Amino acid sequence: MRCKYCNGLTVTELSKRKRRRKRLSQADTQLDNGGLMTDGFYKHQPSLRGLMHSADKGCDICQTFLRGFQIKRPSLFGLPGEDEISSGESDDSAEEEWPDDVRSDNSRVLSEGIFVTPFYDSGDDSDDWVNMIGVTLAPSADREPTVLISFDLFVSHDDPHLDRTFILGRSIARNPLSNEGINLMKGYISDCMRHHGQACLLAPSTLLPTRVIDVGDVNTGTAPFLFESRNTFGSYVALSYCWGGITHHQTIKANFRQRTKKIDFDILPRTIRDAIKVTRALGFQYIWIDSLCIIQDDASDWKNEAEKMASVYGNSQVTIRASSAATSNEGFLLNRNKRSHYINWSHRSLGMRKTPQAFIGEHAQDWASMTKTSPLTTRGWTLQERMLSTRSLFFGKDQIYWECNACIRCENNMLAVPDIKPQRNHKISSKHNNNDYKRYREYIESISANGAYSRMDKAMPRSGLVHQLRGLKGQSPDKSSSQPSEWKSMLEEWSAIVANYSDRRLTNPGDKLPAVAGLMAALDTRYEGNGGQYVAGLWQKHINDLWGLLWKVDAPSGDIKIAATYRSPSWSWAKLDGKINTQIEKQHGGSSSYQARVLSVRVEGSFVDVKRAHIIIQGDCGYLSRKLFFSMEHAEQDGQPFARITADSGQISRDEQLAYVAVHQPYCIRIKQWEGDGLFYKCQFLLLTAVPNRPNAFYRIGIGEAPIRSAHWVFPDHNYSLRSWDKLWHKLERRTITLL
């Protein structure tokens, strides 16, 4: 039995509050001016005590509000658990203020009232789209809330009166493979095919991968089997998932022939069974799954197929991403059990159905939280699987998400980034054209510039979809080119990709280069002949411009491992397991100059298997001096620079740096420096050690720098010249060396 306050909580009431809040906001009304802001809130229960009493009496909405308060502030109710500091699931949400006297005066809190207000997205149009409702516990509507919680506000996807609402949210199917869920996924794919043009262009039929799984037909009893394509054309989907150490289901030499006839569906891990079910539901006959389509104990087959990842994921009609599953046994077709409650449109609409049926419900995990917390975000192979895919369906714990080269969408319609501005007539258009794409791309790039998108989407390096929108395969509304500005942009993006990838885990450390071979192949094809040849995790131009040599370890020694067996040269980040910083070039004023020059680069092997490689480089070489390691205090006193070094085996504390130099006595080659008006700004140099029994050959063992210190404002009384800087090195000479 609902209380009178919940019966009075109607869409019409929320609409009134929305308009009043907007009007007050536009007028810049003071919140504490005579309680005027109360017009923007619906007055619910007069006290928390009243809410608790109503919940005990069986009011379903009051029960949900109370449960929300208990989860957010368990200490107010004497419950175990820590109080949350934000209203959302993302760590980037703004923290809420908590009045100092809340913990000490629970009796006061019990008398505080409950207020409900709509949350809405405001654009240039006069109409605004309501996303959620906020429920506050506060002394009054114009006072700082003690607790703020929020709930999704939505209508059903198939509501016959959908076009009459300003409510943005949509319902989430309880079963992803219900008719509602299947129609939603098919709609995403159809929309993309019909309206996204060149941005998401894929041939309806393409050369199939070497092997695919024919999913069979559950209606006729046809079991799945491994289909050898032999240059057959068709359409297929691909799976991106976490293995989780499970291997019993793999295709190996011993079962390969049997699997070309039949694969026992019941012995497959749940995630793979779910993927086959989705493939059937979407109307596709084939799916590519790495553990089944590659002969796992055949090194030659594995190497050949690993080099084809660019085409496997790039030509897939859609990639199924098991975002909620940490292992292949968990599955991703989860029933959603979020509580939801209907609310009336208005008091007059009781018993009438000429208006949409609105609901309020517990939050579904949003795009930002999903991409940040998904197990796929931590795995090495899945980065290229996402980036190479033109279209992807993400199966999260609460809902389905869609990502393609033109937009991001969510099942509950709470878009992470709106692909199209809502129309004035309140109809959400699902159509896209080049103008929509251009607007979307500009929006992504604009928020990328200030870092907003990187906070929204932790799974993608730097600007998230920017590199996709620019078109790794040259597929974008704008004609691709290989101009210097584009090259610089690509190299910056690649550096960001490497930094992101380095922090991901691989079950087999030997997969370090194979797990991004598809990305390398896609870019290598596009830029071949323009300095874009791939070289052991870097690019020829990246090395020639010296950017690629300036990476450094971004983790303590305990979190870094140097590969025990050879997989890349010492000057490549790929020799390490652990987080690195690629130090994407930024100009800090003055002029930038490179003191070294790459004379030649040679590599033997393939994308997935580097046999050997070396660089012949010329530059100023010498030994570090103790004078380079003054503390900051000494630097301020006598104007001498202080150096910081980072070993490739891990970060070194300031106190240990001198000891490291004393023990290892690294030889150095100066790579780059910034300078202005004859004043030293910054120098970066590589730390080297001699290769035994090979004259003039060295391994890289670390990197160092003397940080930027502008003598104009940091050390106004201690200007120093580049000549004095040179004197701080021992046996400084210009020479040509080989880096292995």
Structural notes for this entry:
The protein has 740 residues and is α+β, with helices and mostly antiparallel strands. The chain has 3 domains: 167 residues, no CATH class; 243 residues, no CATH class; 252 residues, no CATH class. The chain is 26% helix and 22% strand. The protein is built from 22 helices and 31 strands. The protein has an 8-stranded mixed sheet, with helices on both faces. Strands 1, 2, 3, 4, 5, 13 and 14 form a 7-stranded mixed sheet that branches. Helix 22 links the parallel strand 30 and strand 31. The chain starts with a helix and ends with a strand. About 17% of the residues have low confidence.
Features:
alpha+beta; seven-stranded mixed β-sheet; 3 domains; 740 residues
Summarize the structure.
With 740 residues, the chain is an alpha+beta fold. It has 3 domains: 4-170, no CATH class; 186-333 and 365-411 and 433-480, no CATH class; 488-739, no CATH class.
